[in-house]
Structure formats: structure tokens, C-alpha cells
Amino acid sequence: MTTDDDLLAAARAVAAEDEDRAGVAMLVALLDHTGTATTGTPDPEDRALAGQVQRAWEVLRDADPDTTVQDALAALAHLRLRPTPDVPVSPGAGSLAAWRPGDTDRPDAAARDAEASRVVDAVLHGRHLRVVNWHNTPASHAAELRRELEWYAERFSPVTEAALHSALDTGRWADPRPGVVPAFFDGFASAAQVAAPLCEELGLVGWFYPPTEFLDCPPAQQRAFAAEHDLGVLDEDLPGDAPLAMTWDALADLATRHVVCGHSATHASSASVRTPADVERQVHRPLARLTEVVGRRPAGWAWLGGTPFDPTAPGDAAVAAAGIRLWTSNAAVERLA
Prior knowledge:
It is a single chain. The relative contact order is 0.14. It is built from twelve helices and nine strands. Helix content is 43%, strand content 12%. It is an alpha/beta fold and 337 residues long. The protein has helices spanning 4-16, 44-63, 69-80, 109-124, 142-155, 161-170, 189-202, 212-216, 222-228, 248-254, 276-294, 314-321, and strands at residues 24-32, 128-134, 157-158, 179-185, 207-209, 259-260, 300-301, 326-328, 332-335. Helix 2 (44-63) runs antiparallel to helix 4 (109-124) and helix 5 runs parallel beside helix 7. The chain has one domain (4-335): Glycoside hydrolase/deacetylase (TIM Barrel), CATH 3.20.20. Residues 85-113 are annotated as: Disordered.
């Protein structure tokens, strides 16, 4: 039985976690904006899980007004979806809310409650997914990454772009095991050199989110680019001017076996994209380059900070207008088209 104290401690642990080093497990909702998704009849397991999400949200909301339903989902995942059964949690003081970019405002209380209601309803009707987010996966962490991915591969099924759309269309997953998405953000060379081969060996499908200008950046300038654009470079990374970013050839190769999504040009937030010039640089050019390299339109999109889709935001609207079908936020995968 998960207590309120368990939820609070787990939320503090997630908020304090170094996401540049750890695989952060998330339970996310599947939301559909097309009107074509099939809504299943709630089964007992989904009903129980939806109740847990609702309770976790109420506990965290009452304890810290800065939280969103993302924090409730992350706390539950920390307790339920981690490779180590006794993952340490943090008692006592500390923020319960996840980091957000400095230019990204916290939604007001009504908006946060509305988002939570949408998420709970999706979970109730079986539209939910497990996602584990990694950023940098250097070779020095390969053994740890293998252990984590092995744990997920033993318990969960791989999720392709087609499988996700099929689950939304039919209301059920083809594989009886729950699906898991190992997501690798920020275009580091280690994602192609370490993470992708491990996923392939273990039968998992990775979802990769590279900021395109990082891949364009000459190796000697990549550390400066990373520092300027909030890309977490680890002490364990190769010294000197060794490439930090994957190459375009490496991305093209892994795209034949994995899923590639857009992540802006410079690791931008939605809030930072305001003008037509911003939209051109952060949306249109990255999508064109990714389409050229991988031979098809990217499967989805995510901004820095994992904000939900907002059709009134210039960058978000441009992504939708470009025909990108999936939107990745910290609380949901949203189907736009």
C-alpha cells in the first residue's frame, strides 16, 4: 500500500535526480486530438491505476502548489517502474516539482487540474504508456544502462510508431505485455554508439530526439554549444575535442531500426519560439533536415521542458501544420494527426 509519505518522498527523489545521468521512468497518458481513437471499457487494473494517479495528484497538489500531474506520474513510476525494487526515496524537505525552463510559466491551478483530469481519464480507459527518458549514455555507464534496459526488456514490449498508432486506433496493444519506450534525448554520440546497440540486442525500439544544430556543430565547438543550450555534458565524456554529438550518418543508420523525432534546432523551449524567424529556425529547418536524412517525416516532437501541446503557441502550431503526428510531453504522448 503506497502511503502519502511514500508519494511525497518519491516526488522529492525524482525532482532531485540528475536526469543527465539517470534513466527517469515515467508513466504517461495517451491522448488523441483526431477523434479517431477507440475508447476501451475500463478494466479493474486500469481503474485501480487511474485511482492511484488521481490520489497522487491530489497529494502532491495539496503539498506543493508548483506541482503538475507530471510530478504525480513520475512519483508513481519511481515507486512502480524502476529496475531496483527498493529505489531510495528522499524524506524531508525539498521541492516536489520537476525542473522547467526559466522562460516557461507554471500553468494556473485550473489548467493543471484540467490536465490531470485528461490524464486520469486516459489511464482509466487503458490509454497509457511507460517511458524511460535518458539524455547522455556514455560508455562508462554502459554496464548500468545494460542492467536497466535488460530489466525493462524482460517485463515490457517494444513500441514502434505503428504499434502506438494501432493501440490508439483499436484500444488495445498487440503484445499482451505493457509497452515501454526508451527515449534518448539531445543527440549525443553515446546514444548511437552505446544505447542504440543495447536496445537492438535486447529487442527494444529506441525513440531518439536530436537537436539538429548540435549535429551540425563542428566537434571542436560542441562543448561550447552544449553549455550554451542546456545540454548536459558529463565529466565521464571523452576529453578534448572528441565529438559529443552523433553524426548525421549515425542518425540515418539508427533510423532504419528505431524512431526519430524532432527536438528543435538548439534544444529550445516552446516559450522561446515567438517570431516567424524563430519558427523557421527551430521548427521548419529541423523538420526538413531530419526528413532529408532519415527519408521520412519525423514521428513526433518534443520541446525542452516537455510542455504539452498548445495550439496557440507559434512553434507548436507550426509543428502541427507540418503534419507531425505525435507530441511528446512530460505527462502524455498526444496524437495530433
